[in-house]
Design a protein that fits this description.
By secondary structure, this protein is an alpha/beta fold. Helices cover about 30% and strands about 25% of the residues. It is built from twelve helices and 20 strands. Strands 5-8-9-10-11-12-13-14 form an eight-stranded parallel β-sheet, sandwiched between helices. A hairpin with a 2-residue loop joins β19 and β20. It is globular, with a radius of gyration of 21 Å. The N and C termini lie close together (about 10 Å). The chain binds zinc ion (ZN). The site of zinc ion has 6 residues, from loops.
Length: about 400
């Protein structure tokens, strides 16, 4: 297969044009792959031309038993990857490309670049800088589907703020929501906030009216406030089971309240660390899988060896157990999980096959956020080709973007 060929450029041409040019150069305008479809288990032939799927049909050709075709993974919360910390002010296009390629090698071809709590002027300057970097590369434009701003409109209560600096928390005043919208123009934007903060309900309604998706998180809101937040337009709860104290009231705590609030999709970090297997199974039983999607909440150590890493000003340690520790503290600070590993760990926790959980890290987050990740005629030829040698044993994964593979 041809190598993925992207180029760093200054103009705003779309990736498709780039792919077409590469195709012409290589005299390869079309491609076909035969594999077993992840949903049906049946052999299919996927054809594409100029980076777009043109046919997907049952095939009578012999298909290797271990070769599978699945949609690419979509991660809505990525703080860094492959040694690159997205919270740094001096990031370069090359560093973002390193992280993007690391994610693609882990099955994920689109993600929301996530910024965490910082001083407002620093946070907004960082967002402007990142948008500028993204506009310089067609590869980044394709991969960074938008932005997730997690903070500073979060709870500053102990335990609920997690690794975010409580001293930097702010109330979500309307002008800040307008500022976020205007500086990101028409980019897809996800905002995680705590609805108990002053002005938060108005901010949720305003953000929603401006096309910003709102998720609740790092919160100790009452049941009443959670219901009001949903009525105002919030539709998700960020990394349920985290951003709360180690010890919770057994009768009334944020987990029970969130699970008991209709209208919320929840995201879970399926690394077997952030959410215990028992709670993971219970959340699936309580909500049903259609109301759950998976995310890594990855930081720079994901897709990189153990060692010392940062999230902005935070110095962190990551051991061989992949737990991201803040020295001297009990909370986690993001994960070192690769998206594709999350699929297999989720399957392990739910005691099922990988095919049953794949959508939770691809189709469902994409659908909730308004992206399409389905394997369908007319859609970009983005897909994962997997080699699964035994039940839940991944031997290799290759991610194709517009018909070009990453290896
Ligand atoms: Zn968080």
């Amino acid at each position: 297969m041809l190598k993925l060929r992207f180029e760093v450029r200054d103009d705003k041409d779309i990736l498709l044009a780039n792919a077409r040019r590469a195709n012409r150069d290589n005299a390869m305008q079309r491609g076909e792959i035969c594999a077993r479809h992840y949903a049906t288990g049946k052999g299919v032939a996927l054809e594409w031309r100029d980076g777009v799927i043109t046919n997907l049909r049952a095939t009578t050709k012999a298909v290797a038993n271990d070769k599978w075709l699945a949609p690419t993974l979509v991660d809505l919360q990525v703080n860094g990857f492959a040694g690159v910390d997205f919270q740094r002010d001096d990031l370069t296009v090359d560093q973002l490309l390193t992280a993007t390629r690391g994610l693609r090698a882990a099955g994920c071809c689109r993600f929301l670049l996530t910024l965490v709590t910082d001083e407002w002027t620093k946070l907004t300057a960082r967002l402007r800088h990142l948008r500028k970097l993204r506009s310089q590369s067609s590869e980044l434009e394709q991969a960074i589907a938008g932005w997730h701003v997690e903070g500073p409109f979060l709870s500053s209560e102990p335990g609920f703020h997690g690794a975010h600096d409580p001293a930097l928390m702010l109330d979500p005043e309307p002008e800040k929501i307008h500022q976020l919208r205007s500086l990101t123009e028409n980019d897809a934007l996800l905002l995680t906030l705590a609805p108990e903060r002053k002005n938060a309900l108005e901010a949720i309604a305003l953000a929603t009216s401006l096309g910003i998706k709102v998720s609740l998180g790092h919160t100790n809101a009452s049941t009443e406030v959670l219901h009001q937040a949903v009525a105002a337009g919030a539709t998700c709860f960020t990394h349920l089971g985290n951003a709360c104290p180690q010890q919770l009231d057994r009768h009334d705590n944020i987990l029970w309240r969130a699970l008991d609030t209709p209208g919320l999709t929840v995201s879970l970090i399926p690394d077997q660390i952030h959410v215990s297997p028992q709670l993971f199974r219970l959340v699936h039983r309580a909500l049903g899988k259609e109301s759950i999607y998976y995310t890594t909440d990855a930081m720079a150590a994901a897709g990189a060896p153990p060692g010392a890493y940062t999230i902005g000003a935070l110095e962190l340690e990551v051991g061989a157990d992949q737990i991201v520790r803040q020295p001297g503290r009990s909370n986690y600070a993001g994960s070192a999980l690769r998206p594709i590993d999350g699929v297999f760990r989720a399957a392990q926790m739910l005691r099922c096959g990988w095919r049953e959980v794949w959508d939770g890290f691809s189709v469902r987050p994409a659908k909730w956020f308004g992206l399409n990740s389905r394997l369908e005629v007319g859609e970009p030829a983005n897909f994962c080709l997997l080699s699964i040698i035994a039940e839940n044993q991944l031997a290799a994964a290759q991610c194709y973007v517009h018909g070009y593979s990453n290896t």
